[in-house]
Amino acid sequence: xxxxxxxxxxxxxxxxxxxxxxxxxxxxxxxxxxxxxxxxxxxxxxxxxxxxxxxxxxxxxxxxxxxxxxxxxxxxxxxxxxxxxxxxxxxxxxxxxxxxxxxxxxxxxxxxxxxxxxxxxxxxxxxxxxxxxxxxxxxxxxxxxxxxxxxxxxxxxxxxxxxxxxxxxxxxxxxxxxxxxxxxxxxxxxxxxxxxxxxxxxxxxxxxxxxxxxxxxxxxxxxxxxxxxxxxxxxxxxxxxxxxxxxxxxxxxxxxxxxxxxxxxxxxxxxxxxxxxxxxxxxxxxxxxxxxxxxxxxxxxxxxxxxxxxxxxxxxxxxxxxxxxxxxxxxxxxxxxxxxxxxxxxxxxxxxxxxxxxxxxxxxxxxxxxxxxxxxxxxxxxxxxxxxxxxxxxxxxxxxxxxxxxxxxxxxxxxxxxxxxxxxxxxxxxxxxxxxxxxxxxxxxxxxxxxxxxxxxxxxxxxxxxxxxxxxxxxxxxxxxxxxxxxxxxxxxxxxxxxxxxxxxxx
Length: 507
What we know:
By secondary structure, the protein is an alpha+beta fold. It is built from 15 helices and 10 strands. Strands 1, 2, 3, 4, 5, 6, 7, 8, 9 and 10 form a 10-stranded antiparallel beta sheet that branches. It is globular, with a radius of gyration of 26 Å.
């Protein structure tokens, strides 16, 4: 609280003075409240509507303002002003858990959503990702189903390990992300002590309109630190807002968290010749093949003044890009381009981009008009249509992305039918680079998390892990107390055969 703040007079919603804010108007000293107490009616009506719909996912979150400073030259790849050498751009970043509701504990085993809004001179750029380089699914058709599987069971109203693991194990492409989630990195010690990834493949294009594909990585300068299940449980028992408190207090004391941004670059020719689909979000680009290229530093250095106005109403969508940054054929990204903005329109209203935390810091000229909460003048008498004869707001074809050549018939392609597809390679490579202590943590966390599930689901997951690396599957089967010989037998089946063999809960 600002010590210089002076007491002010209480008013109603339109500025008229309020005579009493504690005692209702009643018919006599012990009589009922009367409808004439219009200030009471206003207070109650507003209170009933104070809670906007929470985000379906990423409901529990914290945020901070900061700056992004470019320290290295990547202009050969992109003409985006925000990424040119020396550029300093104001930002707002929101951190969140994914599956939990708004009142969930911070230190749950879950991936962490991270979205940064760059208020660039060319418009807002939203980099929307997570603290993992991959994701569970690669087709947007499975997006709502994933969310429902990790949310509350419709019958019991409780979170269900059975539902969660049933879904995961029926989609073999989840194996890599499940391995990461069950590893020691499944519960970060703080937001400050975790890396950030754009996850998807995006595109860059330069002044010559030449395209390359890119992935975004932000490496923490505070070092990676994580919590064990036992440590997290102890924290959740006493402080459910632990991560939010840590971020807020670090910034308040001037200990500003920083991340170094890197990109990986793949040419269009390399993408066409790549040994697997480079647009599959469940897979990574190996650093030895596509090295990290340093770009700049993201620093968080100012806390919001009002949580609801600046954190709860912050809205992000990967559809918000700027000239020089574009999209890719990543089918999950393609779905998110619609889903995120549409979710914000439902949650906050069609004019959510007019909320101060979401508003661009540059001139905005569009033809969107009207709608709830339009409070900015609504473009006055300017024409509301295009084309028009008044030279208003013409398109800028010079900033268009270069054309992308496509091939093949329009069809519902299953990635598993691609002969180059391997859902288990990356999880196996991750197992191989883990130290022994990290492998032990992964196996222990997985066995404990999957313990409430029926045997068929345990066999299904152990088989996937065995296909990633035999040692991984063997150790997990032992930890879960299931028959290793059966796991090896199941590993000989194709995906359809494995699903059919593990339909029975009793096995």
